Amino acid sequence: MKKNILPAIKLTVIMILFFTVIYPLAVWGIAQFSPNAGKGEVIEHKGKKYYTNIGQAFTVDKYFWSRPSAVGYNAAGSGGSNKGPSNKEYLAQVQTRIDTFLVHNPGIRKSEIPVDLVTASGSGLDPNFSVQAAKVQVKRIAMVRGIEEQKINQVIERNIERPLWRNFGPQKINVLKLNIALDNIGK
Predict the structure, then answer these.
(1) Distance CA 79, CA 10 (A)
(2) Per-residue pLDDT tens for 118-139?
(3) Beta strands in 25-171 (DSSP E)
(4) E-state strands within the chain
(5) Which of 32, 36, 108, 118 suits a disulfide with 97, CB 3.0-4.6 Å?
(6) What is the pTM (predicted TM-score) of this model?
(7) Rounded CA gap, 58 and 67, in Å?
(8) In the Cβ-directed half-sphere of 145, how many Cα atoms lie within 13 Å?
(9) 3-state SS, residue 67
(10) Residue 41 in contact with residue 51, Cβ under 8 Å?
(11) Are 141 and 64 in contact (CB under 8 A)?
Protein backbone atom coordinates (compact mmCIF):
# COMPACT_ATOMS: atom_id res chain seq x y z
CA MET A 1 0.00 0.00 0.00
CA LYS A 2 2.85 2.41 0.86
CA LYS A 3 4.30 1.60 -2.51
CA ASN A 4 1.28 3.19 -4.24
CA ILE A 5 0.21 5.95 -1.83
CA LEU A 6 3.52 7.85 -1.59
CA PRO A 7 4.02 8.19 -5.37
CA ALA A 8 0.36 9.27 -5.70
CA ILE A 9 0.81 11.96 -3.04
CA LYS A 10 4.04 13.17 -4.66
CA LEU A 11 2.37 13.32 -8.06
CA THR A 12 -0.59 15.22 -6.59
CA VAL A 13 1.69 17.82 -4.96
CA ILE A 14 3.72 18.25 -8.15
CA MET A 15 0.56 18.68 -10.26
CA ILE A 16 -0.90 21.18 -7.78
CA LEU A 17 2.29 23.26 -7.95
CA PHE A 18 2.45 23.01 -11.73
CA PHE A 19 -1.19 23.87 -12.47
CA THR A 20 -1.66 26.53 -9.77
CA VAL A 21 1.71 28.30 -9.90
CA ILE A 22 4.03 27.42 -12.78
CA TYR A 23 1.51 27.17 -15.64
CA PRO A 24 -0.46 30.35 -14.74
CA LEU A 25 2.81 32.31 -14.39
CA ALA A 26 3.99 31.02 -17.79
CA VAL A 27 0.72 32.04 -19.47
CA TRP A 28 0.79 35.43 -17.74
CA GLY A 29 4.42 35.96 -18.80
CA ILE A 30 3.67 35.15 -22.45
CA ALA A 31 0.62 37.47 -22.34
CA GLN A 32 2.87 40.38 -21.35
CA PHE A 33 4.33 40.32 -24.88
CA SER A 34 0.91 40.58 -26.55
CA PRO A 35 -0.82 43.88 -27.34
CA ASN A 36 -2.09 45.62 -24.20
CA ALA A 37 -0.29 43.02 -22.04
CA GLY A 38 -2.97 40.37 -22.53
CA LYS A 39 -5.82 42.57 -21.32
CA GLY A 40 -7.52 42.74 -24.71
CA GLU A 41 -7.71 45.55 -27.22
CA VAL A 42 -9.41 48.66 -25.88
CA ILE A 43 -10.94 51.25 -28.22
CA GLU A 44 -12.17 54.66 -27.12
CA HIS A 45 -15.12 56.01 -29.12
CA LYS A 46 -17.26 59.02 -28.26
CA GLY A 47 -15.76 59.22 -24.77
CA LYS A 48 -16.42 55.57 -23.87
CA LYS A 49 -14.00 52.65 -23.68
CA TYR A 50 -14.87 49.33 -25.32
CA TYR A 51 -13.12 45.96 -25.40
CA THR A 52 -12.98 44.64 -28.95
CA ASN A 53 -12.75 41.04 -27.75
CA ILE A 54 -16.16 41.15 -26.02
CA GLY A 55 -19.41 41.35 -27.97
CA GLN A 56 -21.43 44.57 -27.78
CA ALA A 57 -25.16 44.99 -28.29
CA PHE A 58 -25.99 46.80 -31.53
CA THR A 59 -29.69 46.86 -32.46
CA VAL A 60 -30.17 50.37 -33.88
CA ASP A 61 -30.94 50.39 -37.62
CA LYS A 62 -28.08 52.75 -38.52
CA TYR A 63 -25.53 50.19 -37.28
CA PHE A 64 -24.64 46.63 -38.18
CA TRP A 65 -26.49 44.41 -35.73
CA SER A 66 -24.32 42.19 -33.60
CA ARG A 67 -24.67 38.51 -32.96
CA PRO A 68 -27.32 37.70 -30.32
CA SER A 69 -26.11 36.92 -26.81
CA ALA A 70 -27.46 34.22 -24.52
CA VAL A 71 -26.10 36.16 -21.52
CA GLY A 72 -27.14 39.70 -22.43
CA TYR A 73 -23.53 40.64 -23.34
CA ASN A 74 -22.54 40.30 -19.67
CA ALA A 75 -18.87 39.30 -19.62
CA ALA A 76 -19.09 38.30 -15.97
CA GLY A 77 -21.13 35.22 -16.86
CA SER A 78 -20.40 33.99 -20.33
CA GLY A 79 -22.23 30.97 -21.68
CA GLY A 80 -24.49 29.60 -24.35
CA SER A 81 -28.21 29.00 -24.04
CA ASN A 82 -27.72 25.27 -23.40
CA LYS A 83 -30.83 24.61 -25.44
CA GLY A 84 -30.74 22.08 -28.23
CA PRO A 85 -32.02 22.57 -31.78
CA SER A 86 -35.19 20.63 -30.96
CA ASN A 87 -36.10 22.79 -27.93
CA LYS A 88 -39.41 24.55 -28.71
CA GLU A 89 -38.59 27.60 -26.59
CA TYR A 90 -35.24 28.02 -28.35
CA LEU A 91 -36.82 27.60 -31.80
CA ALA A 92 -39.42 30.24 -30.93
CA GLN A 93 -36.64 32.60 -29.82
CA VAL A 94 -34.74 32.10 -33.08
CA GLN A 95 -37.95 32.59 -35.09
CA THR A 96 -38.58 35.87 -33.24
CA ARG A 97 -35.07 37.02 -34.15
CA ILE A 98 -35.68 36.06 -37.80
CA ASP A 99 -39.01 37.91 -37.87
CA THR A 100 -37.47 41.02 -36.30
CA PHE A 101 -34.61 40.96 -38.79
CA LEU A 102 -36.99 40.63 -41.73
CA VAL A 103 -39.11 43.56 -40.52
CA HIS A 104 -36.04 45.81 -40.29
CA ASN A 105 -34.50 44.55 -43.54
CA PRO A 106 -37.22 44.59 -46.21
CA GLY A 107 -36.34 42.78 -49.40
CA ILE A 108 -34.27 40.13 -47.61
CA ARG A 109 -35.54 36.57 -47.76
CA LYS A 110 -35.38 34.27 -44.75
CA SER A 111 -32.94 31.99 -46.61
CA GLU A 112 -30.48 34.91 -46.98
CA ILE A 113 -30.11 35.49 -43.23
CA PRO A 114 -26.82 34.03 -41.96
CA VAL A 115 -27.19 31.78 -38.93
CA ASP A 116 -24.83 33.94 -36.87
CA LEU A 117 -27.36 36.80 -36.90
CA VAL A 118 -30.09 34.75 -35.23
CA THR A 119 -28.19 32.35 -32.94
CA ALA A 120 -25.87 33.11 -30.02
CA SER A 121 -22.33 31.81 -29.88
CA GLY A 122 -21.18 29.27 -27.30
CA SER A 123 -19.82 32.02 -25.04
CA GLY A 124 -22.63 34.48 -25.72
CA LEU A 125 -19.95 37.16 -26.12
CA ASP A 126 -18.66 36.67 -29.66
CA PRO A 127 -17.52 40.09 -30.94
CA ASN A 128 -17.33 38.90 -34.55
CA PHE A 129 -19.69 37.82 -37.26
CA SER A 130 -19.37 36.53 -40.80
CA VAL A 131 -18.84 38.67 -43.88
CA GLN A 132 -22.27 37.49 -45.07
CA ALA A 133 -23.82 38.82 -41.85
CA ALA A 134 -22.45 42.26 -42.69
CA LYS A 135 -23.39 42.23 -46.37
CA VAL A 136 -27.01 41.24 -45.73
CA GLN A 137 -27.45 44.44 -43.65
CA VAL A 138 -25.99 46.92 -46.19
CA LYS A 139 -29.30 48.00 -47.79
CA ARG A 140 -30.89 48.88 -44.45
CA ILE A 141 -27.89 50.89 -43.26
CA ALA A 142 -27.52 52.70 -46.60
CA MET A 143 -31.18 53.69 -46.52
CA VAL A 144 -31.16 54.86 -42.88
CA ARG A 145 -27.88 56.79 -43.17
CA GLY A 146 -28.43 58.08 -46.70
CA ILE A 147 -25.09 56.63 -47.83
CA GLU A 148 -24.35 54.77 -51.05
CA GLU A 149 -24.21 50.99 -50.65
CA GLN A 150 -20.83 51.00 -52.38
CA LYS A 151 -19.27 53.08 -49.56
CA ILE A 152 -20.63 50.71 -46.93
CA ASN A 153 -19.32 47.70 -48.87
CA GLN A 154 -15.88 49.37 -48.95
CA VAL A 155 -15.99 49.75 -45.16
CA ILE A 156 -16.85 46.06 -44.89
CA GLU A 157 -13.94 45.06 -47.15
CA ARG A 158 -11.48 47.14 -45.11
CA ASN A 159 -12.62 45.50 -41.87
CA ILE A 160 -12.49 41.83 -42.88
CA GLU A 161 -10.11 39.86 -40.69
CA ARG A 162 -8.50 37.18 -42.83
CA PRO A 163 -7.74 33.74 -41.41
CA LEU A 164 -4.24 32.80 -40.26
CA TRP A 165 -2.07 32.33 -43.36
CA ARG A 166 -5.32 32.66 -45.35
CA ASN A 167 -6.09 28.98 -44.64
CA PHE A 168 -6.94 28.39 -41.00
CA GLY A 169 -10.45 29.53 -40.13
CA PRO A 170 -13.15 31.65 -41.74
CA GLN A 171 -13.06 35.33 -42.59
CA LYS A 172 -14.72 37.42 -39.91
CA ILE A 173 -15.51 41.00 -38.99
CA ASN A 174 -15.39 42.62 -35.56
CA VAL A 175 -18.78 44.33 -35.23
CA LEU A 176 -17.56 47.11 -32.91
CA LYS A 177 -14.70 48.09 -35.22
CA LEU A 178 -17.03 47.93 -38.23
CA ASN A 179 -19.60 50.22 -36.62
CA ILE A 180 -16.93 52.70 -35.54
CA ALA A 181 -15.58 52.73 -39.12
CA LEU A 182 -19.18 53.28 -40.31
CA ASP A 183 -19.47 56.32 -38.02
CA ASN A 184 -16.24 57.68 -39.51
CA ILE A 185 -17.46 57.65 -43.14
CA GLY A 186 -17.12 61.13 -44.53
CA LYS A 187 -15.00 62.49 -41.66
Answers:
(1) 36
(2) 998 878 788 999 999 999 999 9
(3) 42-45, 48-51, 128-129, 160-161
(4) 42-45, 48-51, 128-129, 160-161, 172-174
(5) 118
(6) 0.78
(7) 9
(8) 23
(9) coil
(10) yes
(11) yes
